[in-house]
Amino acid sequence: MENYKGIQVFAEQREGVIQNVAFELIGKARELADTIQEQVTALLIGHNVSDLSKELIAAGADRVLVVDDIMVKDYITEPYAQAVTHIIHEYKPEIFLLGATTIGRDLGPRLSARLQTGLTADCTSLEISEDRELMMTRPAFGGNLMATIMCTDHRPQMSTVRPGVMRRHEMDYDRKGEVVRVDIKFDVEKCNRVRLIRKEREEKTLVDITEANVLVSGGRGVGTQGGFAVLADLAGVLHAEVSSSRAMVDAGLIGHERQVGQTGKTVRPDLYIAAGISGAIQHLAGMEDSEFIIAINKDKFAPIFQVADLGIVGDLHKVLPALTEKIKAIQAIKK
Ligand code: FAD
């Protein structure tokens, strides 16, 4: 275990574009590495991707290990698992982080089985203990409590983290770092068991609430009788997106792509307006890191008020239209 050093991040790229979650993980890895005075290494795998290394260094990596090979042009489990397993055996990181994306969720368990170490999936927080162990926190028992898990007997300590949970650092293109090319001897026979025949891109018509700066979010309190119109009106004047709690998704009133929370999206907008949302722990898990939270609820004891920067006790059907009119009036004066 003593030979294990540093923090490695799987820098997921798709078609030459580094995924946001990779930058978020490098940001977090940087903080953890500074605590234990170690290095951050980004692992970049693909074909003709070397140029992306500077992005990873600007984001906070000290070193980038690049596997540039036609075998790993597109993500397929076996060649990627072979490449990462080889690198982990060779470079022995103490900690290995992946995004909890479809790729990370496929790759992570393969690696943990091959490396005979643990994997804590879907972490919401990562910290270093006094004994330099990684404390990996994630919701447990249906999200009713948060469990902090440690992997004390095996290395690396591995975890996946959902996109949007960690905060990426400002890019600093003056940062210097080392770029090392790593050649992998692939077991081609094993790799050929699965081949990519063709790619079909799903048409992206769904909104991405994780990208919105302002979210107007509604819960069961909005009601079933066209209540979302009041949310949409406010969202319209604020150039915001509408999102919701799971209660509204389960009721079939809004699509799952707009659900915030443990089984929905993790969001961190500049402003999150929670209307008629009680503030269940599974909902809070997806939004409590928003910059500014305004809660509107007619129950002054609703738990949402505990995370709100501004709380309005009242009927959302009165408060939201009044707010919309007020904002419209201010906007009209500014014109
Ligand atoms: P409620 O809890 O019913 O709250 C409605 C609120 O509206 C109340 O506080 C009430 O006072 C207020 N209200 C009513 N009328 C008005 C009015 N006219 N004006 C103002 N306020 C009013 N939930 C999520 O949101 N996201 C998830 O990802 C998620 N994942 C889950 C995963 C698991 C494994 C489990 C077990 C649960 C999960 N849940 C999730 C569900 C979660 O536990 C809650 O049931 C859900 O968040 C409740 O939604 P709500 O706040 O809209 O409804």
Question: Could you walk me through the main structural features you see in this protein, from its secondary elements to its overall organization?
Answer:
With 335 residues, this protein is of the alpha/beta class. The chain has two domains: 7-191, Rossmann fold (3-Layer(aba) Sandwich); 214-334, TPP-binding domain (Rossmann fold, 3-Layer(aba) Sandwich). The protein contains ten helices and 17 strands. The strands form four sheets. Strands 7-11-6-1-4-5-12 form a seven-stranded parallel β-sheet, sandwiched between helices. β9 and β10 (145-149) form a beta hairpin. It is elongated, with a radius of gyration of 22 Å. Bound molecules: flavin-adenine dinucleotide. The site of flavin-adenine dinucleotide has 29 residues, from α7, α8, β16 and α10.
